[in-house]
Amino acid sequence: MEANQSILKAALWMCASMASFLTMTVAGRAIIPALDVFQVMEMRSVIGWFILLPLVFASGGFHAMRTKRPWLHISRNVVHYTGQFAWLMALTMIPLAQLMSIEFTSPIWGALLAVMFLGERMTVRKVAAILFGIIGVLIIVRPGISAVEPGHLIMLAGAVFFGVSVVMVKSLTRTDGVVVIIFWMLIIQSLIGLIPSIMVWRTPEAWMWPWILLVSFTGMSSHFCMARALSYAEATVVMPMDFLRLPLAALIGYMIYSEQIDAYTAVGAALILAGNLFNLRRRAKEPEIATS
Question: What residue segments make up the domains of the chain, in order of their start?
Fold first, then answer.
């Protein structure tokens, strides 16, 4: 029963993470045309650090933010920032449908790397969630069959970087608290993005600030909630849930931007949901069958 409760907590935290990511997508869509992406990313990290401060003080203050694994924190954030950079490069090189389909392979890389480097077991339920997720994403985005372009390889590298980042976060949750992980993420990524943001800096206008603050809060809370989810369950359980972001994004597009949801999106969303429910449904005394 305790294992089931942990998985439920992980699912709830992951739902909060996805809600934050989706809110950040809406806010980012409103502000990105007016400000450069690097500036938005830098402001998100700096402002997010100040938003996090109440949790820092509640957790024992700056003294409690000490870590015995500084190099893993640095490596994780360099990897994550590189993944973001690859995404931005590929965005201008390949169609958006292809970009999204490749981007959403990152949970698969994360799950597979967790098996290889964290010793997690690949079970029938986890394999089913991954396969249903892959098929569902492909049905939704329906990438065209074409020759492999440099942008495809760049985005594939970015997806791998995102997967590696998640595995590193899971490893960090074994020794560091979630607040510590987010505290150092915001500091390190602020330092990484400082020079690029200065080069493109533009003074924000008054109407931009609500969107900037929303991006900053959700940019922090999305990673905080994901780290909390990873502290309750294995990455191979948590990461397939991220597939739900794509059909949810389609729903938001329909409700806010009047973007139509076709039959392909509905079928793909159903497959993604079915895979996740199958992965999360655990009976108290039901043993899992490992695939390796």
Answer: 2-280
